[in-house]
Design goal:
heterotrimer; A alpha/beta; B mainly alpha; C mainly alpha; A: alpha/beta; D-Maltodextrin-Binding Protein, domain 2; four-stranded mixed sheet; C: mainly alpha; MetI-like fold; 2 domains; flat
Chain lengths: ~425, ~280, ~300
């Protein structure tokens, strides 16, 4: 409790400091200030990084973006569309990198800095997110993935063998049989698309044909397939099951956290990002967390559930890439700073302090991480990122995502017979510019 | 007798209902602002904070220490005040002409104000965004003050015209008989008489500017110019996944304090100003 | 004598005219500048396919954007939503607002207290009202579920269209009823007391007095209040943005336009929607004026 409070205070203090620096330095002839627009994950460590990576030549000031990925994109895109020169560094959700790069809002890394940003150490899944038209347009800072978090006691009571891959069907049945729940993200927002995308890929399909996805408006829509139907079937099953949480249709990454260790009931199965581990570790004995260390040991983790039995699941991939604004007044400094805030040391701190996992293999292998996390969890994460299913890499991703959301939400209305077909028609029309979003 | 008693009881019940209607949600947001953030994250239903789920003044401390929020207050005050002063100044001239002078085009002025008061602000957002980024006044105070005039100016003209109709203009004539010109009569005699109306119009206009959301979220992107309503809607707490409900409530209460103070001090005048349009004195 | 009076009078009226134009010009010019100018710009942009994220691909497409919008189910669904919200909120506000006005009119004590209280919802920021009600209806942190009978404590108001719309409209109605009540209160003051007394003496019931004496005498006030509030409700945006962000098909036409322009950066079709929104406001205003026979002179406050 106090931990969070302190965190808030620290964040507020450093934001305040950053802004006063900004005010002091803006436009004057002194040392330039680079503005770094961050998303709210891991604010404490990002503030430390900003301080550490400030040099004699420049200071880095943190500017906070809104919480949702869509709002973050909107805020940044509006600044960049206005040709804003004070957007120096920005934390970008990887799915929006192609759009920004395509609009020429990102300054590509070249030469030495390109080599520093993207070397062999960077995990393949993360590396793929920062290239566009054969240029390196951003630097991977951390990588994210989802696993299945659960109460061991709940799985045991339901007789579910978690040592082998489990399917969504099994998880939903197990939870409803024992009076537990299944936590997902199904509000009308980006993470719902994350879920849908992983379900479809888990059944061997794709929202857009991968070989044409980079063609923007000309990409081929393939969501109306057997895989799309399998995905819809899972969502329908959960929505109709007793195991659905009451706020299913407005659920996000935070809403189901409290269901893991409820005051009554056996807890839940939950697909969620890597931060969950640190979250519960910090909540031992506090409301919303495990009652004691003993109960924390009841928290289990397994690979993301399979959509179809026997077909390997494709866990979601997320994270943050650091881009440099194309209109920055100090592009060289900004790129230097981008390299600094994404180096191995920075990634290690984000992982150890904030539960935000590295995009570099060497950091997974470091002693600091091995000390902070159970070895099997680290291995599970690295494996999930390596074999995960990324969302469509398109300059029109934001429209694609909105189109999916508007047909697939609410999860209570999802129907395998109609939803994939309807969303294919709508997505096609949106890409062709024939339908309103 | 019986009927009268019934009416009185009915009025009393209505009185209580009105107070509940107006104040209950306000009490709720205040109560919510005293729930601790942990309690809110884990779910704490009910009107009042549960035992152990109270936060004391912590949420207010956090909110007031938040630089973004303080900037938003400053922005809102600065932008709303400027828009108010400009609108009221221009509207005073217009309303004087409308109420006092006979001239061609009076109907046009009033109809224009009426139509523009009903203008869908969202329609303006797209072209303004596109123009502002070209002019370089995107995300600045002036970039908000100008569009605010689209709704503050008609409102001010509206309210002031109604007020000015009530002014005893004979005094102006008396002054003119004493040899003053129209302009002098306006400045020396009418302005002091009109001041209370102008002041009321200013308060109402300020309310509208303070309330704006559409321009606030569309034409800003940082704390450089972002006003309070927009800042509240983007409020980010320590936990990125949950809206910090109680912190937000504290922010909402802070944002509402100026409004409540204005209402408390100028209640009589505001009511008069609001209803001026519907009643012809 | 008569000629000189006429000359002086016309001199004066010419002078008055000139002064009036000088006084009026800045405000009128500014009003047109901040509305008509952007609207013309929107009209121009609406003929292009133009996305800010691909500015080089801007091309002239004529009326295509309008065709797309007007043949799109989403546009009509959102227009339907908007009209629905407008009709329901204005109707409810009219009834409650009238009841409040009657109470305030009769009230002999605590008038200041009531008027101060009733101004508070009016003065509160719409966004704050939206948040207050969103949290009040929340099944995890709110109180509505526990106060309402027949509603289970974990009922999620924001899970379906109907209940989300209820929540949005409650917030809208809560905030704007006081405005309605005050306008109607001013109208009530216009009802001649002696007519009411006469009706009473004639043995008219309360109901008859309401319909035969009170309401007809308040007609102007009611119609002006309905016109203003209806057009205000038609522009609903803030509450929807805050409470559902358009989830469960609760979008209004303003929200749709905002999303095209500001979130998707589709300035072409977004501008077409802006123009359509403006035109639809004119249509709504026209219909209200015609159907309810609102006297525009009342609205313009002409005696």
């Amino acid at each position: 409790m106090t931990g969070r409070r302190r965190r808030t205070a620290a964040v507020i203090a450093s934001v305040a400091l950053g802004s006063s620096l900004l005010a002091a330095c803006g436009g004057s002839s002194g040392k330039p200030t680079l503005n770094w627009y961050i998303n709210p994950d891991g604010q404490d460590t990002l503030n430390q990084l900003a301080e550490r990576c400030s040099t004699d030549d420049y200071d880095i000031a943190i500017q906070l973006l809104p919480a949702s990925a869509t709002d973050q994109r909107t805020q940044l895109a509006r600044r960049l569309a206005a040709g804003d020169s004070s957007t120096d560094l920005m934390s970008l959700d990887p799915v929006f990198v192609p759009e920004f790069a395509n609009a020429k809002w990102l300054r590509p890394f070249e030469g030495e800095q390109a080599d520093a940003v993207l070397d062999d150490d960077v995990l393949k899944g993360a590396a793929e997110t920062v290239t566009w038209n054969d240029q390196i347009v951003a630097a991977p800072q951390w990588a994210n993935t989802q696993v299945l978090w659960y109460r061991k006691s709940l799985a045991r009571a339901a007789g579910l063998d978690m040592s082998k891959p489990v399917t969504w069907d099994q998880v939903i049945d197990a939870a409803s049989q024992e009076g537990g729940t299944v936590g997902v993200q199904a509000n009308k927002y980006e993470a719902y698309v994350v879920w849908i995308n992983s379900l479809i890929q888990g059944a061997g399909g794709h929202i857009l044909d991968p070989s044409t996805v980079e063609d923007g408006r000309d990409a081929k829509v393939t969501i109306d397939s057997q895989a799309g139907k399998e995905a819809a079937a899972v969502i329908q099953k959960l929505a109709r099951s007793k195991a659905a949480q009451p706020d299913l249709t407005t659920s996000n990454e935070g809403t189901s956290l409290g269901q893991m260790f409820p005051q009554q009931g056996p807890g839940e199965f939950m697909t969620n990002w890597t931060f969950v581990y640190k979250n519960y570790e910090g909540l031992v004995g506090k409301p919303g967390g495990p009652a004691d260390e003993e109960q924390l040991k009841d928290l289990g983790w397994a690979r993301y559930p399979q959509t179809v039995e026997g077909e390997e699941s494709r866990p979601p991939i997320g994270g943050i890439d650091i881009g440099v604004g194309a209109f920055s007044k100090h592009p060289d400094f900004a790129q230097e700073a981008a390299v600094c805030v994404t180096n191995a040391e920075a990634q290690r701190d984000l992982a150890v302090n904030e539960g935000l996992m590295p995009a570099r293999q060497s950091v997974y292998d470091s002693a600091a991480l091995k000390e902070a996390y159970p070895a099997d969890l680290l291995a599970l994460w690295a494996d999930s990122i390596d074999t995960g299913g990324p969302r469509p890499k398109s300059a029109f991703y934001s429209q694609i995502s909105s189109a999916i959301q508007s047909v697939w939400h609410s999860p209570r209305q999802v129907d395998p017979d109609t939803t994939p077909k309807k969303s294919a028609d709508f997505l096609g029309a949106v890409l062709r510019g024939e339908a309103l979003l | 007798m019986n009927k009268n008693a019934l009416t009185r009881v009915g009025t009393l019940v209505g009185f209580v209902l009105i107070l509940l209607w107006c104040l209950l949600p306000v009490a709720w947001i205040i109560s919510l602002s005293f729930k601790s953030q942990e309690a809110v994250t884990n779910g704490s239903p009910g009107f009042f904070p549960q035992s152990g789920g109270g936060a004391g003044w912590q949420n207010y401390v956090d909110v007031l220490q938040d630089e973004q929020f303080r900037r938003a207050i400053l922005n809102s005050i600065g932008i709303s005040l400027t828009a108010t002063i400009l609108s009221v100044a221009l509207a005073t001239l217009t309303a004087y002409a409308v109420a006092r002078l006979e001239f061609q085009g009076k109907k046009f002025v009033l109809t224009t104000a009426l139509v523009i008061a009903m203008f869908p602000v969202v329609s303006l957002v797209g072209p303004l965004f596109d123009m502002w980024r070209t002019f370089g006044i995107y995300d600045t105070w002036i970039g908000l003050i100008i569009p605010y005039m689209s709704f503050t100016l008609p409102l001010a003209i509206w309210t002031l015209s109604a007020f000015f109709r009530e002014i005893p203009w004979e005094m102006e004539q008396a002054a003119q008989v004493d040899g003053a010109t129209s302009w002098q009569a306006f400045r020396k005699v009418i302005v002091p008489l009109a001041a209370p109306g102008v002041f009321t119009a200013a308060i109402l206009t300020f309310f509208f500017a303070w309330n704006d959301f559409v321009f606030g979220i569309s034409l800003t992107s940082t704390e450089r110019a972002r006003p309070i309503p927009a800042a509240l809607s983007f409020f980010v707490g320590a936990d990125p996944f949950n809206r910090p409900a109680s912190l937000l409530a504290a922010g909402a209460v802070v944002a509402t304090v100026p409004v409540i103070l204005l209402v408390l001090f100028f209640q009589r005048k505001i009511v008069a100003g609001l209803t001026a349009g519907a009643v012809k004195g | 004598m008569s000629t000189s009076t006429v000359n002086r009078a016309s001199d004066r009226s010419r002078g008055e005219n000139r002064l009036a134009l000088k006084l009026v010009a800045p405000a009128v010019a500014l009003m047109l500048l901040v509305t008509a100018f952007p609207m013309l710009r929107a009209l121009y942009l609406s003929f292009f396919s133009y996305s800010l994220t691909a500015p080089d691909e801007r091309e002239f497409v004529g009326l295509d954007n309008y065709a797309t919008a007007l043949t799109d189910g989403l546009f009509w669904r959102d227009t339907g939503n908007t009209v629905f919200i407008m009709v329901v909120t204005v109707a409810v506000e009219l009834v409650i607002g009238f009841a409040f006005a009657m109470v305030m009119h009769r009230l002999v004590f605590a008038r200041g207290l009531v008027r101060t209280s009733i101004l508070i919802p009016y003065g509160i920021i719409t966004v704050v009202s939206g948040f207050a009600w969103q949290f009040a209806f929340s099944n995890t942190n709110g109180f509505v579920n526990s106060w309402l009978p027949f509603v289970s404590s974990d009922f999620n108001w924001f899970a379906s269209y109907e209940s989300s719309m209820v929540a949005i409209m409650v917030s809208e109605i809560w905030k704007t009823t006081p405005f309605m009540a005050l306008l109607l209160l001013a109208g009530l003051a216009q009802v001649p007391e002696d007519m009411l007394e006469a009706a009473k003496v004639d043995g008219a019931t309360w109901w008859q007095r309401l319909w035969k004496v009170i309401l007809p005498n308040m007609r102007a006030a009611i119609m002006v209040a309905v016109l203003f509030r209806a057009l205000d409700a038609y522009r609903i945006f803030d509450n929807i943005f805050v409470m559902t962000a358009g989830a469960n098909n609760t979008e209004s036409i303003s929200f749709l336009t905002y999303r095209q322009v500001i979130e998707q950066f589709q300035l072409g079709i977004g501008s077409a929607l802006s123009v359509l929104l403006f035109l639809s406001v004119l249509v709504v205003a026209f219909l209200i004026v015609k159907i309810f026979r609102v006297n525009l002179a009342d609205a313009r406050q002409e005696a």
